[in-house]
Write a structure and sequence with these properties.
Blueprint lengths: L9 H11 L5 E5 L6 E6 L2 E3 L2 H9 L14 E11 L10 E6 L2 E6 L4 E10 L3 H11 L6 E9 L4 E9 L3 E6 L19 E13 L5
Parallel strand pairs: 3-4
Antiparallel strand pairs: 1-2, 4-7, 5-6, 7-11, 8-9, 9-11, 10-11
Length: 209
Amino acid sequence: MFGTYFYHEIIRKIVIAFGTMFNNIEVRHKADDNDDTLSSLKVPIAYGPIQKFLARIEQQPDFDRNVAITLPRLSFEIISYDYDPSRKIAPITKFCAVEGNTIKKMFMPVPYNIGFRLSFAAKLQDDVLQILEQILPVFAPCFTLTVNLIPEINEKRDIPFCLNNISFTDARAKTDPGMSLEPSTRGIPGRNMPAFSAPISSRVSPSNS
């Protein structure tokens, strides 16, 4: 049992699949008097808590400078691993995969729900609404991706990603030196920074060989 090495990179593949869903989000700024597009920006996404990126931006409050961290920005992180007894199958059950003259046996996977938090921050409220409107219609409330979890036995599974809830934070730094911001509402001096957070869970069953 314990001590027998196996690693199929299943959780890593789920994380990559989740981030891939949001790597083509785009924000466009248009002229006030017509619909001509003045600028277009592909919103970058990275793994990690949004507070980490906001803290780095606070150190460079001048948005006109060419800095590595810019807004708007998407980030995501794993927030939970929860065992799902409703999908439990007898643990001693095995399934087989035939590859040429070789028969490979695998134990039935163990069901877990992985919780993700997708967050993003932007300088403009309209940027937030553009990003949000490109995400919400996809989840009704789930979006399913097919992931090749174990290529050696061609085990492909449909992984549903379900949107649980949405929360907004309109964070504005306070200029009064006697007041301070809570860590969850950190802002940039003189700027509005709407922040969005949407916990999303996925159902995955890690396998052991």
